[in-house]
Amino acid sequence: MVQRHNNLLFPIIERHGGRIVKTIGDAIMAMFTKPEDCLNAAISMQQPIAQHNEERGKSQ
Question: What pTM was estimated for this model as a whole?
Answer without folding.
Answer: 0.84
